[in-house]
Amino acid sequence: MRASQFTFATLKEIPSDADIVSSQLMIRAGLIRKLASGLYTWLPMGLRTLKKVQTIIREEMDAAGAQELLMPVTQPAELWQESGRFGAYGPELLRFQDRHQRDFVLGPTHEEVITDIARALLKSYKQLPVNYYQIQTKFRDEIRPRFGVMRSREFIMKDAYSFHVNPDSLQQTYDVMYRAYSNIFTRLGLDFRAVQADTGAIGGSASHEFQVLASSGEDDIVFSDTSDFAANIELAEAVTVDADQRALDRIEFGQGTQSKQDVATPDMPTCEQVAAHLDIPLSQTVKTLIVEGEPTEDGVPTLVALVLRGDHTLNEVKAEKLPQVKVPLTMASEAAMAAAGLHKGYIGVFGLPMPIIVDRSAAVLSDFVSGANRAGFHTTGVNWQRDAEVAAVADIRNVVEGDPSPDGQGTLRIRRGIEVGHIFQLGDKYSRALNVTVTGEDGKPVTPLMGCYGIGVTRIVAAAIEQNHDERGIIWNISTTGESIAPFDVVIVPMIKGKFKDAAQDPAMKLSEQLYATLQARGVDVLLDDRDERAGVKFADLELVGIPHRVVISDKNIHTDPAQTLYEYVNRRDGEKQLLTLAQLLEKLV
Ligand code: ATP
Ligand code: MG
Fold it and tell me: Aminoacyl-transfer RNA synthetases class-II family profile domain spans which residues (predicted)?
């Protein structure tokens, strides 16, 4: 490609509404342009990168035995009514009507459509297992589209769906997908982790997220510093800090010696304020959160008290798994608390008119401090059992750095991650809802089990840039497999003297053309920067776009003996300049 014939849409100014560095750089480097909130055009420069990402994904999915197909973005609402998701999906699902007033949705995902296809195509166990995938546009009316293409409303996903006659077959394909995903993200040059994830309301048996480590990530990822344990914080089990009490079944309530005593804590509704006032560690206080419980059989609303150590935070996903707690988790209203005689900020653990569920780490405390159940007072010297009746002890907190790893090896660390992929054992949720059956080996009908496997194709580009950039612009990582998703791998910059009109006659231009032809013939993705611009302008653009290898050709290095002609080579990552012969240069670039 010749730069003079290619649209460089680079910008000097940082776009005012780009909220993270990858989105700023993608817009400034001319990879994308915003159309409206959560909607982006992929410009020619960006599309080159996006296509490289798609090629790697296709190659690995094909190698893993998956078959590519392409489903419509527009989906009839009846299918979503059949699965029960038409009502359940919420406002992220864009619903609309056609000219005949028939209901449709713009696909946020394709479980319904693929299951309908399976219902039509799959007749016998002999056709299974089978794994179908597509690379397709999705629409989700995200409540907060942000971070450019990282969380957009329209985005490209690779989604795959597999069908199986039994759980072993599902597990096998799941493992194959796990390996394919590891290959994909390795070839993409990303620093990623596969982490255990929550299976949520669908309740499948296994789920992993592939997370790119980056401080701008929206998820908290937990790892052991010694073993290979890694999980999303939503799922990571919190064990008590006391190593002797690690297993839940060995948790024993703390046994204290102090007696209960109320102390005045006026205008100190938080544990932090109380701990500072009493000069005790925050971990010696507890906080009581009142949430809505499952209504009684006659529909009467109930409340549940959740007790955590003062320095810990509630894990909502874990709390929602408690049978007593209403889903979605809802904090009790001020009115409901007042009706129960509770004073916000001063709620204790004794005499509460509702079941108390205590986090494991709070359960092992003794002689601790809680609210006194009267405004402006807290109570010291509180002990479980003696002072407070406990309905259940449960794991309901988020892990914190330094907690013991739940596999018993090492301690936990927490980093931010960007979810770029998700694999999931769905079970028969959709195949059962849509009545898919195939004839089993014994001649009887079987409902197939399903797996689903997603990759955020457009999000990957943003995640790659979050991980690799500097003050001059984007850096495209060269992966351990020697690949890159840079729009171009090499750029040749001829240093032309004088008027550009005579450029074709300029020795530097002639030699640049020769090198351009040589590299193209060898299959290198090369850009010839023949734009009529000052070298400084070109260099700034090329560094912003992040082309990994730059070759500058100038008269002063051209020799009558071609073997002695030197090429100035600059690597984008380290900026180091080298003068190389043609042989040395080709060695590096081809
Ligand atoms: P998130 O928790 O980030 O909202 P999700 O759980 O909704 O993700 P999935 O339904 O598993 O995502 O979709 C598969 C993949 O699609 C995700 O792993 C992610 O990489 C990508 N993805 C999801 N939502 C968006 C979005 N709004 N913009 C860009 N990519 C997205
Ligand atoms: Mg989502």
Answer: 38-487
